[in-house]
Specification:
52 residues; mainly alpha
């Protein structure tokens, strides 16, 4: 899928240093150094926790 196929709002978030380190670690270990994929994974986990 191409990025321009999605319609939605841009979102800006602020991360604490420890959260940024977690993103970097996950990007390196789980997503071939892809920070965007790591952030999507963490956001998905957070959203699932909010449903509980």
């Amino acid at each position: 899928m191409r990025q321009d196929q999605f319609e939605g709002e841009d979102v800006t978030i602020e991360l604490a240093e420890e959260e940024l380190e977690l993103v970097e670690e996950m990007a390196f270990s789980d997503h071939r150094d892809n920070r965007d994929a790591a952030i999507r994974t963490l956001l998905d986990e957070w959203l699932k926790e909010q449903d509980d």
